[in-house]
Specification:
With 409 residues, this protein is an alpha/beta fold. The chain is built from 14 helices and 15 strands. The strands form 4 sheets. A 5-stranded parallel beta sheet has the order 2-1-3-4-5, with helices on both faces. It has a 4-stranded parallel beta sheet with strand order 7-6-8-9, sandwiched between helices. A 3-stranded antiparallel beta sheet has the order 10-14-15. Strand 1, helix 2 and strand 2 form a beta-alpha-beta unit. Helix 2 runs parallel beside helix 12, helix 8 runs parallel beside helix 9 and helix 12 packs across helix 13. It is globular and about 65 Å long. The protein starts with a helix and ends in an 18-residue tail after the last helix. Keywords: Amino-acid transport, Signal, Transport. It holds the Pfam family Peripla_BP_6. Belongs to the leucine-binding protein family.
């Protein structure tokens, strides 16, 4: 190669590198924070799996082809509102985070929602349950994706009542989620002709439910409603089995339970439990394909509905950011998320209402008997599909100040 050819080749290489650098500089930076429980009662059902789900969504979206450069960071809120609030403020003020995702533990979620509004970022909740996020605590910066306490009450509460469970006793985790779930389920019970005979509040988190279960047993209620989740729900169900409560004729309403909890309990204990959720890995080809990919990164585990919600909501958030070519105005991004129809392989097509509530079908499941299961994660059977328009509380009944005067649907 002559000197002239070498100079030409080097010049071409430098031009190509310069063009690549310029192209990279033109990409819009987007930073997503996954904030959840990575060490406590919800670490199994959200935790690292939710972070993996968010990163899978980023990879599948192919952000560079949409002019975006996306980074995902994660932190542990320890189920403490003050810790979650502190992390959120640092992310927004110092670390350049544009949106916070997941956030199980409703008390933390409510704090994050208000800080997000104050900072005009975006909050896309998957793990937190309180329906207040699209009710009195709604904001223009919040989307509530996967489920909420009203949908759980509609699904499991009505199902138990249809099967003759007319008298109820509640064992309730004493914090925002448990109180909201009890409130919403009580409303369904009373509206449909049932009676609440009593209840007890439990510390959160709580490893020992013995005394509370004995009180529920002594009440004679046909249904014991467990208004808790995660390891708390699993511990209560396991101890109820040891006390022979279900064998004695009382029914347990697992008002929120994850597949990781059922897997941990085992079907010998969990069989026959009825519960409501928005996702199961074995629903269709799309859920199975995603769950296989997820399992390859998570030692064969299947995703929970919360983790699936993080994947689907991250995809939709990125579509909105790409459409605006900016993530800086959180309220504008959330408005675009509401304007765009949702469509993903896990939840199918859907919409986001003006109050921030994502609408999709819910499912009433039953934990299989051991003899019905064909594999380690073959744990559920579908009893009923609850249509999207029936699954969630009507918008006009939530008390969201943003939607006063709009359609009640």
């Amino acid at each position: 190669m002559t000197v002239r050819h070498r100079v030409a080749a080097l010049t071409g290489l430098l031009c190509a590198l310069g063009a690549g650098t310029a192209l990279a500089a033109d990409l819009v930076p987007v930073k997503i924070g996954v904030l959840n429980d990575r060490s406590g009662v919800y670490f199994d059902s959200t935790g690292e799996g939710a972070v993996v789900a968010a990163r899978m969504a980023v990879e599948d979206f192919k952000p560079e082809s949409h002019g975006l450069k996306v980074e995902v960071v994660a932190a542990d809120h320890q189920n403490k509102p003050d810790v979650g609030a502190s992390i959120t403020r640092q992310w927004y003020d110092r670390d350049g985070v544009d949106a916070v995702f997941d956030v199980p533990t409703s008390s933390v979620a409510l704090a994050v929602a208000q800080i997000t509004k104050e900072k005009n970022k975006a909050f896309v909740n998957s793990g937190g349950g309180t329906a207040d996020l699209t009710g009195p605590a709604c904001t223009p910066n919040t989307v509530h994706w996967t489920y909420d306490t009203a949908a759980l009450a509609n699904g499991t509460g009505k199902a138990m009542l249809k099967r003759g469970g007319k008298t109820w006793y509640f064992i309730t985790a004493d914090y925002a989620f448990g109180l909201a779930l009890e409130r919403d389920t009580k409303a369904v019970v009373k509206k449909n002709g049932g009676t609440v005979v009593g209840g007890v509040r439990t510390p959160f988190p709580n490893p020992d439910f013995s005394s509370f279960l004995l009180q529920a047993q002594a009440s004679g209620a046909q249904v014991i409603g467990l208004a808790d989740a995660g390891l708390d729900a699993a511990n209560a169900i396991k101890q109820a089995h040891e006390f022979g409560i279900r064998q004695g004729g009382q029914k347990l309403a697992a008002l929120l339970i994850a597949i990781t909890d059922i897997h941990s309990l085992g079907l010998e204990v969990a069989q026959g439990l009825e519960f409501t959720a928005s996702f199961y890995w074995d629903l269709n080809d799309g859920t199975r394909a995603f769950s296989d990919r997820f399992g390859a990164r998570m030692s064969g585990r299947k995703p929970t509905s919360y983790q699936a919600g993080v994947y689907a909501s991250t995809l939709h958030y990125l579509k909105a950011v790409a459409a605006l070519h900016s993530a800086k105005d959180g309220a504008a991004v959330v408005a675009k998320m509401k304007a765009l129809p949702t469509d993903d392989p896990l939840f199918g097509t859907g919409t986001i209402r003006p109050d921030g509530r994502k609408i999709h079908p819910m499912y009433l499941f039953e934990a299989k008997a051991p003899s019905e299961s064909k594999g380690e994660w073959d744990l559920y059977k579908v009893l009923e599909t609850i249509p999207a328009e029936q699954a969630f509380r009507p918008m006009g009944e939530g008390g969201c100040p943003m939607v006063a005067g709009l359609s009640a649907k």
